[in-house]
């Protein structure tokens, strides 16, 4: 399989020039302030847009806001990706904060996504690359018939690919990459129970279903693309 890869992907860091290594080094390392600004800005925009849609109570504005919220979901997914590469928050509570602010709301975890994504990087285009294995088969073979292409588009359009893509975020492989700090198992269910309690107490569950849950389901393929899952 390596014979199919471009030459630029076949070498190691010793194949790079001094200038290339220096430029890559400048792009490496955690940037907590910029990271927090992005995640908090995304949530600020989400709350502001949903508040406006609820206030105006207009179907066209609601549809527009749902599309806009979908773009913020993609940003949260990208931030989870950055955290997996240790470019967001470092320290004992880095993954916890990103889980609470970005990963858990998307139904994933930093630790779980790291298992898949880092294995993809280490075993790129080999039999141990989970993304390569998942993207093999008839649905990824081109050219394809117009009938199959229409079926795939319809499946994404009507959210029929949700379960399939959700399963694709899990990794059944011995090549597991563990995070420096492991979070207690009770954290994630406690988060969801807390969110549910708040929605019921504030009677905002209908708003949540329309502007978050429905938007998330309809744009799940888009979010997965941001994570490199699809």
From TrEMBL:
Q: What InterPro entries does its record include?
A: FA_desaturase_dom
Q: Which UniProt keywords apply?
A: Membrane, Transmembrane, Transmembrane helix
Looking at the UniProt entry, the stretches that span the membrane are 33-56, 63-81, 186-202
- Which Pfam families does its entry note? FA_desaturase
The record places domain Fatty acid desaturase at: 60-216
Coiled-coil intervals: none
A biological-process GO annotation: lipid metabolic process
Q: What is this protein called?
A: Fatty acid desaturase
